[in-house]
Amino acid sequence: MSKRQREQEDGSRPPKRPKPEQSHGQSQNQQYAPVVEDIQFARQLQQLLVFRQDGIQQLRHGLASFKAFLESILYHRDEASRPRQLSILREYLDGQKPAGELRDPEKPFLAQLWQAWSFGSQNDNDYLSSQVCATLALLLRTLSSLLDLRDHGILLGQTVLQYQHLRLVRRGLDAPNNMDYVVSPCLRLLTEVTSFDGGALAKQVYKHREQTFDINSLRRNLGLVRKAASDEEAKRRPSVRTLTVRYVLAHLKYLHEGGKIDLLSVRPLCTSLLQHLGHDPHDVVNEILSVTEQNVLRDNEMPRLAKANLLTQQNLERVTEIATRSGDEHPSSDRAYAWLKAVCTISSYGILRASGWYPPGTTSADLQPGENDSGIDLGLDSLDFYDRTERSEFLNTILHGWLQTLRPQTDPKERELAIMCFEAAPELVASYFAEKHFSLEPKLSNTWIGYASFIFEVIRLPVPAHLGNSEATTFAEFPPQTSIILNNLLPQPLAQKILTRCLNQPSELITFFAIRNLVLAFQKMVKVLAEMRRATASVSVENKILWQGAAARLLARFTQRTPSMQDVVLAFRRLPDDDGHIVQREAVTRLLRLYYEVTPVQALEAQVDVSTALAAALTRSEEDAGVSDVAALRALELEHLLVVAQHSAGMRWFTKSGGLLYSPVVSLLRLHTKDLQNRRIRVLLGRILEQHGLLVGRSGADTLSRKTLGLSELEALVASLVDVPGEDGETWAFVDDCMARATRQPVKYADQIDAAIAQTHDVGSNDAPLGLLAMVMAEQTRFVAENTRIIHRVAKYLGLLCSVERPSKAVIALHEAMTGLVDRATMGADDRDALLVKTRLIEPPTMAPPGKYLMEKTSIPFNPPPAESDDHPEIVRWSLKDLATALEDKDIDALILCLSSQHPDIRRQALVQLRHLFAKLQAFAIDDKGPLSVLIGSLSETFEQQCLHAGEDKPLPFLTATFAVRALHVLMEPAHFMYPKLNRFIMRSPEWRITRLPAYWLSNTTLSQPEEDDGYWKEVLWVLEWLIDGLRTSVDLDILRRGDVFAKMMALYLSPGAEKMKVLRERVLELVFMGTCVEGGSDVLALRTGVLGWLAMVGGDVAGLVRDRALRLCDGEKLVKWSGVNVEEL
């Protein structure tokens, strides 16, 4: 088909009408140019703000003038005219007050402006409506800064909250998305009303939430983001989202706890609040984080569930975008990072739950292993949950999901956040690596280095207290699962194959990474094994085998995850022995030492000879005299090598190698003469020389016969060589040669010693054996007779051995054989004693047993009952408020407690006020008025019949008054677990039997079925907390004693079901403490309930403190007469 030909233009056709670019209202608004007049008097302002349907333009001029007038006051633009402006504003506002009832909907405050807003709303004049709304918001903001005009601001806020005006506000909030000029003023107005005077009207605003806080409307407005706006433009003209955020934050800041809980229960709203956080201006981001932390997360009255609705995984990710992924140039990154750290580490913030290395329900079990004697004891395998293959359960699900989104390998801040989470909740380590899979194949890249640094920080985490038993302050019955512990020691990416490859890499950085992580893992393993030994000693007999089996299994699996000893030795031998690699050498020698100390079976699989390295280190230590960092690392390396050499079976102590002047043992002896108090070297020298028979230690035969000075051969040898100068190589070579001869021909010199003993008949000697070194030295002296220095050293050595009261026959024989060379009198007694004092090791101070010192006792963690105040404003305070407000503010609670006052006048006035309250409840339109009326009526009847009957005028026991207070709150909440029982109780009788209240409720909770399946302990705790609160006077104590309450509570404390209820046990101890706070209460508890013996049986710090208090406050004479034992003995 051919293309249609273009028609010829016909000039007679009229042109098309151009499409209008703006609507009529918009063009009309562009034509409007405000005329601002200077306000000189109130009458002028009143004339400007008069509403007439035919004077809309003049009204808008007046609104513009009023706005300029208010801004001048608010921002102090004209300080000279400010007093006159305030006077004009006050006069105008006073003239606008309605003459009659303030809340008359027909005559509202500022009626002209409300009429104008209503007219604009009815006629779709959105610009007029928005201008009026903006003016009211500005007026309210101005009044909030003027204390003298507070009443006018309250009146304006209450006027806004009238139904017909809220309809106008609601219509503005529901305006289309493109009409932000209509939505924004309404949000500003509601925000000012909510935050006026510190939130005085916040509760009323939220009470009308159908109009003021529609969730769908707020969520839509929270999504209206202006993404391309600069910070300056965002401050000058905030977006709808910004204003909505500030409106929601005003509620979180000023609402009461109940309102905030209700607000936060709407999870979609919490999600929308932080959904576009990355596009918000930095001041809005700071405000969101500050308000949520200060007014929600730090509010201890808020339940964890409400806080958790705000701290969802998605919200945490959005804050993370600001904190770590928006760059350091974002002004709010530091604040967001601090917010995240607080959320991750503070348990009261809502999402962090106490946890450790035990998944839920694995600290104990109903069936103990070994209870069934007819079965086979399977040890750890009898626990079906132990080391199971499927993923373990964990409590911190939100933090776990959020951790999976972090990138610790690339961002240091995110790495720190992950480590803080792991430290606060140790259970997350195993769960994190169970789902987070990454490879650590040795490859020197930025990603590999990031992962390696992260793994290093994970291994560095401390071992949790009691091996992660977060349910108690002691070790659990069962050990933690070895798979969980192993993932904390060596995370899953660090497999044995990976570590072996890292050790054999040519890259020194990769090798050092493997060595350093292995060192940390071994050190952490040492701490874990020590804790498991402590747990084994503290648990019951039937569970000891479980802990021992867990330690053995953990050690075996840890050995399977670590590289072989041969790979570590190869890495050690590849390292050059220079100052540039001293850090690596210190680390690898430490690792070799840990292999021998922690996994000796694995270490002994390889023959390790460090004689060359040790001799070189010893020689270097003699030369280095500085205190630099290199010298300190060299000293650590030497210490590690000494331990390795001590354990190594392939160590050649008496062989010179590598061109060294002396053997390793002589080099070690030379080093020790310069540091005589080095206990480690002294012990190592003694062990080496004794193992090879060169010396006889204190454990040898007849050592006890050496009583004078208690001298050992090692001390004599060190003392004889202590002043040999370092340049005297001949003496040290002589000693080295003698040791080598003794190790090569030990039988020859042993026979010579036996022959010398047989030839000696000195009655002052004994048959104690002698080391081979003395015989070799005595034999070799004839070959160096011309060297006086060597002869002098041998003489000193043998002389010291002969200086004891009953020397060895062999020493005497050597002395007689060397007549002319060795003289007993060559050294005086004083010189000998001084030399030995210098040589002997100084014993470390022994620590006295813990019982020898008086530990500073901590204070009792309970508070005594409050004292009665001299003033009682609560008697009439409740009547000045709305009844619902008085109930929420607990003014009725204080009024009920006035019945227990010690002043008769206070009690009578309280009874009169309760009667008024009863009458007011009958006319009050609430759902719970029936049970509340019955409760107040029963309380009044009980007080009249049992406290004012027959001319008596005594106070109501606090047990009864506090019971009524707690019952009042329960009856206001029908979903409470005690509501059914309390409702049945108040319907039983119009009067309560005061003396039987505690016994009745104990029987009705501890010995009865709960209303809810899991509500038994909750009901018992409710009764126990009531008894603690009510025990304030001797009358209350007598009621509890007559009801045998203390005996029942002490029996409940020791019941099997209460073992896991730490809170319940603390409350029982607090009840006993409250009894000691009552006058004469300690005597009653000690003499009538046997509480002293019970506290001694219970044990513990708190029980001991309460027992000491009871002993201190009771009558000593009565106690001695009753028990027959002195108070000091008790």
Characterise the protein shown here.
This protein is mostly helical and 1130 residues long. Among the domains are: 172 residues; 111 residues, no CATH class; 144 residues, no CATH class; 119 residues, no CATH class; 133 residues, no CATH class. α14 packs parallel to α17, α32 runs parallel beside α34 and α40 packs antiparallel against α41. The protein is elongated. The protein starts with 23 loop residues before the first helix and ends in a 7-residue tail after the last helix. This is Nucleolar pre-ribosomal-associated protein 1 C-terminal domain-containing protein. Pfam families: HEAT_URB1, NopRA1, Npa1.
Low-confidence spans: 20-28, 366-375, 699-709, 822-827, 845-858
How would you classify the helix and strand content by structural class? mainly alpha
- Quote the average pLDDT: 81
Percent of residues in beta strands: under 5%
Question: Main β-sheet: number of strands, strand sense, barrel status?
Answer: none
Please give the share of residues in helix: 55-70%
Q: Cα-atom Rg, whole angstroms?
A: 44 Å
Count of DSSP-assigned helices: 58
Based on CA inertia axes, which overall geometry fits? elongated
First and last CA, distance: 119 Å
The count of strands amounts to 0
